Amino acid sequence: MTRWRFFSFLLSSLLILMPVTTSYADEPAIDYPDWLSKVALAAHQLDYQGVMVFQHNERMQISHIAHRQAHGNEITRVDALSGPARAWLNTDGKVLALNPDKHQVSHAPRLHHMFFPEILPDHADNLLQVYTLRPIGHKMIANRDAVGVAFMPRDAYRYGYLLWVDSATNLLLRLTKLDSRQQPAAQFTFTQIDIGTAPGNESLHAGFDHHPIAEAVHETTLQTPWHAIHVPPGYHEISASTLDLPDNQRHVTHLVYSDGLSTVSLFIEELHQPDALQKSGLFGQNMMNLYTRPLDNAQITALGEVPPATLMMMADSISRSEN
Amino acid sequence: MLNTAPKIHTNDQTELLSSAMDSELSEQEWPQFFLLAQDHNLPNTWTSWHIIGDTLRENGVHASLVDEVARQLAQEPTVLAPTRKRWHPFRTEYMMPIAASVAAVAVVGFSVLRMGPANITTAPQVASTQNVQAVALAQPGPSTNLPVQQANLDQGRLARFVAAHGEYTPGINSPVMDASWQTTTEPSQ
Fold this sequence. Notes:
The complex is a heterodimer of chains A (323) and B (189). By secondary structure, chain A is α+β, with helices and mostly antiparallel strands.
């Protein structure tokens, strides 16, 4: 009987402890595929407005964001509260940028333009293939309880991220970008937010109505013969376009690769003057790295907030198909 | 779903806006100033934010405010692991988990042994300088052993590249981002 009681005790203890050992914290383990999808959707499906701060290189930008969703139509307005006066309006697949000082409104198609907290991709669960997610507890952000999850890279081709998500609504409240030493290098965070109240039309459209709209399209999507043959795991091409450089009087092919969080741009400039080609070089500014190299009569430039190895792998494998 | 931030009375709103425009807000009043947009009784929220932005820019309080917010954010520790509760090993409520943890380690250890090395999920490998160098050398491309060359980057061209890249990465196209690049490594081809 004593032996039976001992095994019953051991078994019950094991059942009690197992969830703790798998989740690190004193709460149920997170179903990450489901959680990622909810976080990605929340930024699009919720009504919210608040003040957000972007810290980068010991500098800071303060903005006010208002987001409304109704019947599948999203509208987002961002007003810069620090730095030059600017406002952006994202709606119906296009971006309007207001420059009050110049009494100007410019217009550009919304290809992949992202405003915090719209960070995660549609198929966010794919991130699990290249990042290891682990809980880092709870904290109060903008007077709301946020659950933290660390996105740690599974390889050396990307940096890590910390995401803090509102536990009640799954809206992303804070994103911290980590550098190669796992130290915070940049951060978006709400300092105040109201979730669940739709901003009115008057506040979303104000200021945009009385200015002529100038076309500011610099990129055109295209089928390009240029592609990177070797890309690190998880990265895939999300865009190929031409970029006009007016002062240079030349077209540049712009390829964009992303793993869902980290993004790499590859610029291919076909030069008619071989002496204009630059030698290979690797450069860095905080998290942002840049790698450039000549290839025949083209200058290849790769940049992104990724390790140099990522840029070098892609840029060195750029090839032009002859089809 | 409702915001838990305290609301500001209408009379206080006017006074707060007035004080802000006259640069008479104290440090304690700045957070209240930001909460103004939360009050939906305000006739035109955008106008309020326009005033707030202009006030921050024109009255020179931006720097001190930014410093203050930066200081407060900096005081928050970076958490890479969950905070564990303090525990006392001899308290009775911990005895059962302690006993069970021994059994759990045994079970997990047995499972790992059965999976073998190929199936064990490796610990996340975070990119470090050493890792990057190692990976870079393993890939086809320029070797860092080649002589260093002086690079000549066209800053205007780079600024356009960074701006184009910023369309796909939030934050990069921020007005605070400049194009003053520092050369860290200059492998030559």
